[in-house]
Amino acid sequence: MQIFKDPNYDFIKYRWHAVVISALIIAAGIAIFVTQGINLGVDFAGGANIILKFKDPVPLSKLRSDLPDATIQQYGREQERQILIRLPQQKSEGDYAGAIVDKLHTDMNPEGATKHDLNFQGSDKLAGLLMQIDPDARGTNPNAELHYRDMARKIIAKRSELGIFTNMQQATSTEGMTTGVVRVLNEKTFLGKFNMLNQETVGPQVGKELQGKAIWAILASSIAMGLYIWFRFDLAFGVAAIICIIHDVLIAMSFLLFLRLEFSLNIVAALLTIVGYSVNDTVVTYDRVRENKRKIKKSMSLGEHLNLAMNQTLSRTILTAGSVFLVLLALLIFGGEVIRGFSWILTIGVISGTYSTLLIVPAVAVAWERFKPAKPSAVARVEPRAEMPARKRKAS
Amino acid sequence: MNRNVLWKIALILGVLAVFTIAIIPTKSNPQPIKQGLDLKGGIHLKMRVNVNEATRLEVDQAMNSMRTQATTQKLPVPNARRVNDTTFIASPPAGVPTDAYERIASDYLPSFAMTRVTDGLQFVLKPTAVTQLQHDTIDQAVEAIRRRVDNLGVTEPIIVPEGEDRIVIQLPGVDDPSRVKEIIKTTAQLQFRLVEGGTHPTAQAATDAIPANLRDQVDVLPIDKEDAVGRITGTEYVAVQKNVPVSGRDLKTARTQKGQTGGPVIEFTLTPEGGPKFGALTRANVKRQLAIVLDNRVISAPVIDEEIPNGQGIIRGNFTVQSATDLALMLRSGSLPASLTTLEERTVGPSLGRDSIRQGVYASVAGFLLLIVAILLYYKGAGVNAVLALLLNLVILLGVMAYFGFTLTLPGIAGIILTLGMAVDSNVLVFERIREEMREGKTARASIEQGFSRAFATIIDTHLTTIISALFLFQFGTGPIKGFAVTLLVGLGASVFTAFFVSRMIFDIVYKSTDRGKELSI
After folding, report:
1. Distance CA A308, CA A288 (A)
2. A318 occurs within a structural domain
3. How close does chain B come to A392, measured CA to CA in Å?
4. Across the strands, what pairs with A368?
5. A326 vs B177: CB contact, 8 Å cut-off?
6. Biggest distance spanned by C-alpha atoms of chain B
7. Closest residue of chain A to B342, computed from CA coordinates
8. Could you tell me which CATH class the domain B3-39+351-510 is placed in?
9. Domain ranges of chain B
10. Shortest Cα distance from B448 to chain A (angstroms)?
11. Which residues, in sequence order, are bridge partners of residue B224?
12. Shared domain check, A348 and A212
């Protein structure tokens, strides 16, 4: 099978169309950024994120009145009964999410004052309760602690499997329970309204530091890439590579804004991966240009060289993008809520990376060749004459 | 088949065997690849150690020794006041020359820099002393937290200092976050101090009851108010002496016991140095109340019935079994030298982790199958080759993770899938090159030869650029993100190996240089 049989597309010809399309997308992104701002996640904005899973339908109105300054939304599918509570930045440092979760727990579970909440507490506390009551009469036998710890772990493992206990039967039917433990479960514990799946607090100080680190990481890695390309090829390609990276990052960020995704640490990871991937494609093209220059004796402009190389490597570009796209598709469909934004941004980055390699990189490389300072490089010597008329036409 | 090829086969099978063994779960090692907090569940904490408390304490102690030395040398006691966390000013009574006090300072306060100011002598803790103190404070805090966490039975905890005043704590598998956080954060500074006067409903009343000239020698601290049957009905205040004759540092062990009334009590044993101090304290103060102070709150204030000579005693308080066990644990582990402030906290419950694993596995399997189908459809015979290389890539990637104890996180799983997608690239580069060479009319053998050698530089370049970005990712990231960078880095390394070595070798075996006419399936 073969996708392209002897492709011969004129990518250089369409470069200005591509530049306009990219500019429009990025301009739209900037417009949204200016008017609506960016949806900064807890990692950068600070504050708290809490994910709770409820036993019964989520008491949304109660939660909204309890936590007036929180944003509350469904997390995952509706039948999962999970919600994400997002709390804004606090002025002072402290365990914000933990305090809120504890307060909600006390508010919503009045039984909690006298009984042990099987849906909320972990295995340590359950083991503590069992040891205190000692329903199996193990006494001070040193194995007593092990015995009850093991029971508690099994019960909590089953809860983790189910997400939450919806009836006591599920807990008491856990494998290996003694009648004594079952009695304690029935008499001394209850099934609370919710289970805490995840809680995060990022204080003001750490939030600020992470912002700085993220910007630094993206800028530094882009520059490192450019330097590498400059070192391996030449300055024009290095500059084109950096502009191409910035282009891909900006396009991905624009889509982040269009999709109203949250800007988090995971997104920065995705952007850094895009930086690497985007350069990958570019390197393959440049490698081919370099090889062709050695092989082909007749004089060709940089534009012609790029066109030839891109056509020669076109199947590879599309195939690789296709295979990465396939696995990203699997991530998007099966990867779950936690890495959804991450998968989206990577997918957009792969598409944009391929597109920019084919259309944006040549535009930049050719333009740089034309506008750069007088000192000619090896490529420039063969190139300007052929490109000049094209530009004049454009200008008139 | 020549010897060279046999060698390569042996090497590849060896690699395969070594890494397969590494990733097969055994009884003694049921989880060969370490799972990150986001998969296993657990707590990540970034704490600030309030080191200024340690310097403040140093200043307080310096002021105290200045006063005591003045008294022993029969000098008028200077008026000492703390200006900030590292500075205090000692003012002798009007008309008294400062020379004698300066001598005391040079003899007893070597870590302070002294200057004369208008109202006396100013003492500033020297920067080297401050740094030393900060270091010691962080080290002590890390040690205390480590002992507490070890006592809790958390496996594979990570407790490391970060920067000037921070500690990063990672506790995998912990499912009672609030309890564990409480145990880590409680400073648990235990003190035995003598009570002055009785209990009062407000702090002001407690202060007023103390004669004015003694007020700067006492602290007024809160204590639970109980009714006749021992239920807590509110808070009262009691004045206790500033002097701390015996503290948590003199404690050797502590454990919970059932008390006479059935409630839990904490039984403690003092160190060989602490025991006699406690004996002397109790002997000299029979019939007085001794306050047991924990983190500036009086937990109980029993009357000393008689001398306690053997350094053993019991602490009563309003404990539950859990709180008594936890307190005993903290006392055994030692107190924190300063309080902690939470800067960042991330807790993943075990349920979410389990979901993430499930989703990660589904996504990986689906992604991998999609890839295999696509490759086989497109490259037919050579596709088998690529799939084998890909499988080996996966085994090496997981094997390296297991051998070096790298942590697998959810973004890490995404990284694995992504690496596989990218590893296909190496094969694609080679295969497309081979096809080109064939179009130019070369034989199968020559096309393979040319294809691999021409694609080599390109593959190295593409891998290096991705490795550069993965290194930045590693540098930038924490926790889950680092896991992503790690799988990306390892995967890229494995991909170079499989593309050049494994894929190449399979071609060599199938298309031996001798059979010239053989059709190349690509």
Report:
1. 9
2. yes
3. 36
4. none
5. no
6. 114
7. A94
8. mainly alpha
9. 3-39+351-510, 52-130, 186-345
10. 17
11. B235
12. yes
The answer to whether the pTM exceeds 0.95 is: no
Q: How distant is the Cα of A64 from the closest Cα of chain B, in angstroms?
A: 23
Selected residues 177-196 of chain B with any CB under 8 Å from a CB in chain A: 177-181
CATH 1.10.820.10 fits B186-345, yes or no: no
Query: Are B374 and A323 within 8 A, CB to CB?
Result: yes
pLDDT digits (tens, 9 = 90+) for B148-175: 898 888 888 999 998 889 999 999 888 8
A156 and A221 share one domain: no
CB contact under 8 A, B378 and A1: yes
Give a yes or no: residue A252 inside a domain: yes
A contact test, residue of B37, B178, B184, B354 with most A CBs within 10 A: B178
For B427, other C-beta atoms within 10 Å of its C-beta total 27
SS3 B109: coil
The tokens describing B499, both together, are 């593309």
Residues spanned by the domain of A61: 47-201
Domain B52-130 CATH class label: alpha beta
Query: Averaging pLDDT over each range in A32-36, B50-54, B293-297, which range is the top one?
Result: A32-36
Is A161 in the same domain as A284?
Answer: no
- Asked if A299 and A382 touch (Cβ cutoff 8 Å), the reply is yes
Name the pairing type of β-strands B297-300 and B290-294: antiparallel
Q: What type of residue is A286?
A: Y
Q: Show which of A181, A201, A221 is a domain's final residue.
A: A201
Number of domains in chain A: 2
The shortest C-alpha distance from A211 to chain B (Å) reads 11
In chain B, positions 299-358, which contact chain A (CB-CB < 8 Å)?
321-322, 325, 341-356
Q: Are residues A294 and A350 in the same domain?
A: yes
pLDDT of A246 > 70? The answer is yes
> ipTM for the complex?
0.81
